[in-house]
Design a protein that fits this description.
Rhomboid_protease_S54, EC 3.4.21.105, two-stranded antiparallel ribbon, Rhomboid-like fold, transmembrane helix, mainly alpha
């Protein structure tokens, strides 16, 4: 199994489907309960993140977060030798939650069925990171703790630094990407031939 995972990461660079499983896992869930819990968290935090980032940037961050959290999950599973499915939806949603909690650490939150207990967003984020770190270190299989941590760290990084480094400077990055793709397609590295 380890060989299959390694081969996946080192497959032919001309393949256009290399990241498809990581992108598609952004929309995958383990069960109906898993999907319901993720959709509730996304619904709860989506208006805040969209007002912070805007629709286009939110979609870019969400899809990137799914790929990044799935990649972190793959790496953790290769290191530990546990080869269960990686479901990036939770990691992408954790990015949304962490981004909002980082930007608004004093916001008051509550658990859906226990609204009488409130806590700050900053404390909630610390508790989630501590829980997932313990889960990863102790080998718990309750959640994909590596994907959660990857998503949370990406969300914290993005709203702190990524927006300035990436989104505000995206024009040169997009131009460089198009130049690289044009150069590679001219060498027969994955370009279409008619």
């Amino acid at each position: 199994m380890r060989r299959i995972m390694f081969t996946y990461f080192t497959s032919d660079p001309s393949s256009k489907a290399l990241c498809s499983p990581m992108l598609l896992s952004t929309f995958s869930h383990f069960s109906l309960f898993h999907m319901a819990a993720n959709m509730y968290v996304l619904w709860s935090f989506s208006s805040s993140i969209v007002s912070l980032l805007g629709c286009e940037q939110f979609m870019a961050v969400y899809l990137s977060a799914g790929v990044i959290s799935t990649f972190v999950s793959y790496v953790a599973k290769m290191i530990t030798g546990r080869f269960e499915p990686s479901l990036g939806a939770s990691g992408a949603i954790m990015t949304v939650l962490a981004a909002v909690c980082t930007k608004m650490p004093e916001a008051k939150l509550a658990i859906i069925f226990l609204p009488m207990f409130t806590f700050t967003a900053g404390n909630a984020l610390k508790a989630i990171i501590a829980f997932d770190t313990a889960g990863l270190a102790l080998g718990w299989r309750l959640f994909d703790h590596a994907a959660h941590l990857g998503g949370a760290l990406f969300g914290m990084w993005y709203v702190t630094y990524g927006h300035e480094l990436i989104w505000k400077n995206r024009e040169p990055l997009v131009k460089a990407w198009h130049e690289m793709r044009t150069k590679n397609s001219g060498k027969g590295g994955g370009g279409r031939s008619n």
